[in-house]
Amino acid sequence: MPDKLDLILQKLDSIESKVSIMDERLLHVESIQKQHGDMITQVIGIVASTNQKVSDMQTDISALIEGQKRQDKIIESLALRSLEQETELREIKRAK
């Protein structure tokens, strides 16, 4: 009987040792999981900030494009006016 009891106690010690190792592993996994959760939270914040910056840049780019279109029309108008004035000057020179 004592042999069986010793065998049972040895098995129990072995099981307790394995459970202890499993507990340590589980704590390690939980720690890593928490770190990953924290990183995900940070990444979400960074992505939100980046999205806002991209949106702001798109607004700025749209405003620049509209400004460029206005400037192009003004330049076209001024170029046409310049051609008209050059033609008038040539006509005045010929008339003299």
Task: Summarize the structure in words.
The chain has 96 residues and is mostly helical. Helices cover 98% and strands 0% of the residues. The protein has one helix and no strands. It has one helix at 2-95. The chain is rod-shaped and about 140 Å long. The mean pLDDT is 96.
- Proportion of strand residues: under 5%
What is the end-to-end distance?
139 Å
**Outline type:** rod-shaped
Poorly predicted segments? none
Coarse structural class? mainly alpha
Radius of gyration: 41 Å
Question: Helix coverage percent of residues?
Answer: over 70%
Order of helices and strands: H
Please, what is the average pLDDT? 96
* Beta-strand segment tally: 0
Q: In this structure, how is the largest beta sheet organized?
A: none
Number of helices: 1
How are the SSEs ordered, and which strands pair?
Blueprint lengths: L1 H94 L1
Note the main attributes of this structure.
rod-shaped, mainly alpha, 96 residues
